[in-house]
Write the structure tokens for this entry.
Amino acid sequence: MAKSTRKELLSPTDEFITATSSLLNWIKENPTRFISIVVVVAVLFISGFGFYSWKTHREDTAMVAFIEAFEDPAKTLEIAQSYANTRAGKLAKLRLARMAYSQGDSAMAVSHAEDFINKWGRQDMFYWNAVLIMSLAYMEQNAFDTSLALLEKCIRNGPDVIRDQALFYKATASISQGKNEEAAEALKTISGWFRDIALVTLPVENTTETQNAE
């Protein structure tokens, strides 16, 4: 029969008492080192908690400012610059992209949308809206290949509402280039509600003729 070691003979309670006694003895022999360790741990804990509180307060302050800025370009730009690493600061970039596009500044719209996409870090509705804005801005610059590549990305990977908008804009771009067959293909796969809008708002006589011919 194998001989049992002292550690194997100890119960969990005995092991705890032994470990505690060893720790207490070490503290008695090294009081200065123990105090130093306690101080370091306390400082780290307080610093971590303080940073978390500061960051939370900063996020809340930025979001309140973002909401209050509403459609004010100057205030929105200030938030984007002053709170760049906050959620509100990043969303301010998206708002600036939309406002720039609405004002006809396609270059600035692309710049702000690209900044937002690079910093946002997840592919949600905000992300896909930024991609759509950037594609429309490139379309305004007649950079149709770049615009269509972004629209195709939305069509392949975006949620349904983004996909339908991208198909609508793809049909628009195709018609402007005289590519009626491509516009017809886009309209075939768009959902019913968006397709109805497209048929009313786009000059699709030739595309519908193409569809009927098929």
Remarks:
- The first helix runs from residue 6 to 9.
